[in-house]
């Protein structure tokens, strides 16, 4: 009977170890996805701002169309 309990304890520890490993792996993956999403939004915002700045720089409010 004690051999069976030892087997269950060993398997339980291994199961908890693998669970912890997968938890850490999933956490890192989620953090990378969130970071990449934020960087993408930041790049899009900078590109949009550059376009607006270019349009404003090229605009001449005193230019009259003949």
Spell out the key features of this protein.
single chain, 66 residues, mainly alpha, 1 helix, 86% helix
The helix/strand order is H
Q: How helical, in percent, are the residues?
A: over 70%
- Ends distance: 101 Å
Proportion of beta-strand residues = under 5%
Tally of DSSP helical segments: 1
Whole-angstrom Rg: 29 Å
| Contiguous uncertain segments of 5+ residues | none
- According to DSSP, the number of beta strands is 0
* Structural class based on helices, strands and sheet pairing: mainly alpha
Mean pLDDT: 86
What does this structure look like?
By secondary structure, this protein is mainly α. It has 1 helix and no strands. It is rod-shaped and about 100 Å long.
């Amino acid at each position: 009977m004690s051999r069976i309990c030892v087997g269950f304890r060993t398997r339980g520890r291994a199961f908890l170890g693998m669970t912890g490993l997968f938890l850490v792996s999933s956490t890192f993956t989620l953090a990378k996805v969130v970071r990449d999403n934020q960087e993408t939004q930041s790049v899009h915002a900078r590109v949009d701002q550059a376009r607006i700045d270019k349009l404003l720089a090229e605009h001449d409010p005193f230019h009259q169309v003949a």
